[in-house]
Amino acid sequence: MDGIINFLKPPGMTSHDAVNLVRRLTGIRRVGHTGTLDPGAAGVLPICIGKATSVSEYVLGMDKSYRAELSLGQATDTEDAAGQPVLIKPVPVLSTQGVRQVLMGFLGKGSQIPPMYSAVRVNGKRLYELARRGEIVEREPREIQIYNIKLLEIRENLILFDLNCSRGTYVRTLCRNVAEKLGSAGHMSFLLRTAVGPFSLESAVTFEELVQFAEVGCITKALLPPDTALANMQAVTVNENQATRLKNGSAVTLGLKTADGELLRVYDSSQTFLAIATADGERIKPLKVFK
């Protein structure tokens, strides 16, 4: 059983809990998620099974989309609703134009300092482990990019917006920064991840659906092919002899005009996904073989 489940993680479940659920339902140990989604958040969490775990690193680097709610007036130590209050400030009068202007100011490339309550490692320790002991350490800023941000609604002290951003963007931190730009304090009170690369909320499988599939012995209905995660790579087809050589770890000559080092998804003559390969002149070298 090799493939990817586009799982709709419910709030209250950790990403590790989701992996354990899939292990229990499938009986397969080789299962991994493709990037942590906060326990309090809901939404798209692609989970790789079997040989598909070899593509998880490519999903990790994909852009993400979110729907977030910013609650103004109170900042917390975790930057979300699960934390303890650390600052209370009045909420200014909000206008659609003013809020939209502040949000648009975060478009493009920028940097963020990872929050203390995060899974980032510093000197071998997770930041959240240090934070729980009351320690605060210096963190290096990380480059991020926000491609699109759209104001949806303002309701009293709540701001709802959609966001499309690069890997590694902390929406909690963005909410805190937006609140500060508005002259207040704030925290993220709701988060829904609506997409990870090609994996969308509309096609995600819920907890209940996954359990139901398992009960009737057809959990494979929830599986997407491993190459679903590789749509941004150029596809090439090889003949039977070339397919055999690639399976054995040998390079083959295709005469492609591609940049050296470019990643390719390779299919055999029956259009079965075979491998991820790298371009090397007119040759391709197998990087990961799936058949």
What do you see in this structure?
- The two termini are 13 Å apart.
- This protein has 291 residues and is of the alpha+beta class.
- A hairpin with a 2-residue loop joins strand 8 and strand 9.
- Strands 1, 2, 3, 4, 7, 10, 11, 12, 13 and 14 form a 10-stranded mixed sheet that branches. A 5-stranded mixed sheet has the order 15-17-18-19-16. Strands 5-6 form a two-stranded antiparallel ribbon.
- The radius of gyration is 22 Å and the shape is globular.
- It has 3 domains: 91 residues, Pseudouridine synthase; 133 residues, Pseudouridine synthase; 57 residues, PUA domain (Archaeosine Trna-guanine Transglycosylase, Chain: A, domain 4), CATH 2.30.130.
- It is built from 7 helices and 19 strands.
Question: Any key phrases for this structure?
Answer:
21% helix, 291 residues, Pseudouridine synthase, 3 domains, ten-stranded mixed beta sheet, alpha+beta, Archaeosine Trna-guanine Transglycosylase, Chain: A, domain 4
Please estimate the helix content: 10-25%
**CA-atom Rg in angstroms:** 22 Å
Task: Tell me the series of helices and strands, N- to C-terminal.
Answer: EHEEHEEEHEEEHEEHEEHEEHEEEE
Overall 3D geometry? globular
CATH homologous group name of the largest domain = Pseudouridine synthase
Structural class comes to: alpha+beta
Please summarize what this structure is.
This protein has 291 residues and is of the alpha+beta class. The protein has helices at 15-26, 56-60, 96-104, 127-132, 171-181, 207-215, 240-247; strands at residues 3-9, 31-33, 42-49, 64-72, 74-76, 85-88, 108-112, 121-122, 125-126, 142-155, 158-165, 186-196, 199-200, 223-224, 234-237, 252-253, 263-267, 273-280, 283-289.
